[in-house]
Amino acid sequence: MENLESRYRVTGMDCASCGSKVDAAVRKLPGVTDVAVAVSSGVLKVQHGADFAGEGVLRQVRNLGYGVEVLAPLQPSAGSTMAPPGDDHRAASGPWWWTRKAKLTAACGVALVAAYIFGALFPAMERGAFLVALAVGLAPVGWRAITAARYGTPFSIEMLMTIAAVGAVFIGAAEEAAAVVLLFLVGEMLEGVAAGRARKSIQGLTDLVPKTALVEIDGQVSEVPAESLALGAVILVRPGDRVPADGDVVEGEGEIDEAPVTGESVPKRKMAGDPVFAGTINVGGVLRVRVTAAAADNTIARVVRLVEEAQESKSPTERFIDRFSTIYTPRGSCLRRPGRDRSATHVRRCVERVDLQRAGGPSDRLSLRPRDLDAGSHSGWSVRRRAARPVDEGRSRARNPGQDHRCRL
């Protein structure tokens, strides 16, 4: 059966874990033979049979919380497959601090600060204040965890984060749980900012190619979209213009600055018969160039395509880690079931096991990031601070009946 390829633009992916969720959700659809996700360019490629219904891809990706739209198959534009920068799981517009992730992080931070103030003023209601702060940040994370589990990724970083936070609440560590959730949201926000900047840098490559070109037909020069240039067309490149397409010089002589494409700092002299590349700059002399490659196949487009292919491909080590994590993560949570032991040592070991499971998984599947180390540092600081601070015995019993565990996540 003949395999066809459909391409989609997915907005809001900011890490390899996002790509893995999309891959798992789309791969489950009937008729799909292969899926490739390029996170940096935001392109989803689906290999399928002739009877495949593309609406299923749109539905699956949107249910995960990402924006998606159909791309025409290899439109003749160097930048046609590039997704616009986005820091959230939706199409983002404006500065990064105006995205939903940034707003959620700010709301969680404000709630946590308010909980500290409220707890200092009303000690008896301290636990409730931290539970409210935790709910502000954990509710959307938990919803994403449930959605990812429904569509093929049950052990996502959101799911493990939710398990760790809920477990902390059950052992009386609502304060630490709220703080770790805040650090998790800060890490996601910063990761989205970094992904948006990387996407902008790749988009800058496609911006090197001018949008219009001067075409000479029967002695008449007219301006047309660069995407519509046909093979064999003769274009006019004036001094100071960027070359709109790959081609060969047929008339004229001048110097071309190829630094934007090749990195060569010294302009190269071009004359009849010499090749020129799209995106380079004519620094002197009028040139007539015959187009030898369509917009989708010019030098800049090939560079962007190589970036996409590098994102889509996985090394044997990465594929092994993916297979290993599907076995390690669920079994790691079942190494020891909670028994009747409710001692401080037992509770501490349970929490350490949950936190190790969250932070010790492969970065592609569980999104291991520097924030895991930050969270651990905060936990240690919080335990030391509470150990050094006198705690009222009545409050200690109220928080942990029968035991003063002082065990924090």
Automatic annotation (TrEMBL):
Stretches that traverse the bilayer: 104-122, 128-147, 159-186
Subcellular location: Cell membrane
Highest taxon listed in the record's lineage: Bacteria
Record Gene3D superfamilies: 3.30.70.100, Calcium-transporting ATPase, cytoplasmic transduction domain A
The HMA domain, residue ranges: 4-69
Chain segments carrying region Disordered: 359-409
Name of this chain's protein: Lead, cadmium, zinc and mercury-transporting ATPase
Lineage: Bacteria, Pseudomonadati, Pseudomonadota, Alphaproteobacteria, Caulobacterales
